Amino acid sequence: RKGDTRQEEAVKRRQTASPPTTLQVQENLYDAAFPFYKQPLEMGRFSLDATRSFFNDSRQLRYYSPPPPGDSPQFDLRDGYRDRYVKRDESIKERLDHLLQWILLNQGLLKAGAASSETTSSWLNKDFVTWRGHLTKVLTTPYEKQEGWLLAVTLFQGTYYISEVETEAARRQREERTAAQEELMYMGYKFEQYLCAATSEGIPDTGGVVNTNEAFCTVVQTKLNGHSLLFAGEVDCADSKHRSQKAPDCYVELKTSKEIYSANQQRSFNRYKLIKWWAQSFLPGVPRIVAGFRDEEGTVASLKTFETMKISHMIRGDWNSWKPAVCMNFCNAFLSFVKKVATQDDPRLVYLFSWEPGSDVSYSKHKDPTLAFLPAWYVSSITE
Ligand code: 0WD
Ligand code: CA
To answer: Which of 117, 316, 319, 364 has the fewest CB atoms found within 10 Å of its own CB?
Structure first.
C-alpha cells in the first residue's frame, strides 16, 4: 500500500516470515571485508572422452608443455579449423548430469567426510552442488554490464542444486554466431593443443584433431562463510614441473586474448576480462593462468603468466576497477537468498533465479517437467 513506510513493510515481512522477493546487486552494497573462503580441496576427478562418455578417472588430464625457454612461440590458432575440428553438440543440455554421476560413484568418499553435518540432512552434507562456471557468473554479477543469467535451483534432501538455464539472448547469440565467432571459439581450444601434452614428459601433438567433447574436471569442496559447496570445473592441464604436485596447486588455466596495443585496450582487458579469469580460477584454487595474446591473423607470439592471487593487486590502481571482496560478498548474499527462498524440498520443484544487467535478482517457482533438472536415476538412487 502507498501509505506504508519502509519500516512498516519490514515489520510486516518479519511477521509473515515471507521470503524477500528480490536481491539487490549494486557493488557498493557488497564493498566490505573479504568473507571467509575455505581453501578449496579436491575431492575427485572425472573425464569426458572424445565421444563425451563419462569416466570416473583422470584419463583426460593433460600436461603443461610450453616451448623451451628462449623460444618465442609462433602458434597459428586457425590451423586445422576446417579439417581437424570435432565440435561438441552445444544443443544438448547436460545440466548437472556428469557431476551427479560423479557423486553417485563416490558416495563412500562423501559419507566419510560427513561427520560434522550442521545444516544439511543427508550424507552428501553439502549446502550447494553446482558447476564452477555457474558460480563464476554469480561472482562477476555486480560488475557485469552485458549478459544476464538464469539459474535453476532445486532443494533435494537438504542440498540446493544449482543448474544454469540458457537465456533467450544467449540462445539467439549461439544460433546466430558468425563464421568469425565460430573460428574464434576454435582458436581457444587450438591454443590448448599447442601447450598440452598427453603425458607428463610428452610434447604437444599440434597436428592432431581438436575435439571439444574431451574434458578433464576437478571436483572440489569448500566453504563460503556458512555455505558449504561442492562444485566441478574443467581444468586445462597440470604442470608436472611445478614445485607442488598437489591439486589444485599444479593446475594451469589457459586463455587467449586479443593482443593489447593501446592504453584503452589495456583498461578494458583489466576491467572486463581479468575479472572473469580471476573468478574462474580463484574458485577452485587454480594458482596460474597462462595467456596467449593473438594478433589479427590469429597468431600467438607471446605468452604471459598471471598468478591468480596477484591479479587483484595488478588492477588495484585502475580507475573504476573491480574488487574480489565485492564478488565474494555478493556470492555469499546470493547463496543466503537462495536458502531463504527455496524452502520446499522436492526434486521436481524448480526455483528459477533470474538476473539482467541493471536489475535486481528475482525469482519464480515452477513445477514444470521441462525445467526440472535432477534426473530420475539420481533421485531414486539417493532416495532409497
Ligand atoms: O549446462 C550448462 N549450461 C553448462 C555446462 C555451462 C558451462 C559448462 N557446462 C559443463 C560442461 O559439461 C563442461 O564439461 O561444464 C563443464 C565445464 O564446466 P565449468 O568449468 O564449470 O565451466 P566454465 O568455467 O564456464 O568453463 C571452463 C571451460 C571453458 O574454458 P574457458 O577457458 O573458455 O573458460 O569449459 C569449457 C571451455 O573450454 N566450456 C564448456 N564445455 C562444455 N560445455 C562449456 C559448455 N557449455 N562452457 C565452457
Ligand atoms: Ca581455458
So the answer is: 319
